[in-house]
Design a protein that fits this description.
single chain; 3 strands; 77 residues; alpha+beta
Length: 77
């Protein structure tokens, strides 16, 4: 199954190119529901799942990370 990372922002903040990301979540490709169950804005920034576990993917939701690892146990780098 394909995944991507989607941004969560502070409460009441609309996503724009320069909006700081509160935390990154993992979603199934082009989805808006994080693996942890949080609903994310359809306009939120996304990035490839390949940056998970790198500085570019921080801060990252621990719950999404645990669930992602269950689906991709060989991706621990």
């Amino acid at each position: 199954m394909e995944h991507e990372m989607r941004a969560e922002y502070e409460e009441g903040v609309l996503p724009h190119a320069d909006t700081p990301v509160k935390i990154w979540h993992m979603v199934r490709l082009e989805g808006t529901t994080a693996m942890c169950g949080r609903e994310l804005a359809p306009a939120a920034a996304t990035q490839t799942a390949e940056v998970w576990g790198t500085r570019q993917g921080e801060p990252f939701c621990h719950s999404c990370g645990a669930l992602y690892l269950r689906e991709h146990p060989g991706d621990i780098g």
